[in-house]
Amino acid sequence: MGKNVLILSGSPRKGGNSDLLCDEFMLGAQEKGNNVEKIRIAAKKVQPCSACYYCRDHQGACVHKDDMAEILQKIIDADVLVLASPVYFYSIDAQLKAVIDRTVARWLEVKNKEFYYIATMADEAISSADRTINCFRGYADCVAGAIEKGVIIGNGVYERGTIKGHKAMQQAYEMGKNV
Questions:
Q1: Which CA distances in Å does 8 have to 32, 53, 57, 120, 125?
Q2: What is the span of the domain harbouring residue 72?
């Protein structure tokens, strides 16, 4: 029986480098019989958390009426979460950060997840992705029963599509197959 895999692609560019790695991960995971969904965060309306704690007093409902309630339910229902972002100033991008922050509405229900991380960047030095990966790990540290399963870093890529032919493409596919 396959797992429910949710890929959160933080790339603001459809077909961007981290988005393409998500597609390869998805292909591998699907080939192994998993139920896989990729959400392009940039295609959704997600307001940043306003720290009003409306959610605390309204059974996890948020004051913002946007696409996050649907995304959050999918996060809760997933067995596997893939967090993907281009590296922006040594961290994750705003689109994915808003989603992570908004899980606060029902954060105790987000538990027992396998985590995979995908990061892409123009910089050649792998260490330049450290803070981005640590941001992902910081979120996972708040998820009861979280298990880190893998990290993929596409370095030295900037223009859309330059990840094609990079070793990270094969790594993403293989990692997806191992879910």
A1: 19, 24, 28, 14, 24
A2: 4-177
CATH number at 47 reads: 3.40.50.360
Q: Count structural domains, the chain.
A: 1
Predicted confidence (pLDDT) per residue in 58-72, tens digit? 999 999 999 999 999
pLDDT digits (tens, 9 = 90+) for 41-97: 999 999 999 999 999 999 999 999 999 999 999 999 999 999 999 999 999 999 999
**pTM over cut 0.85:** yes
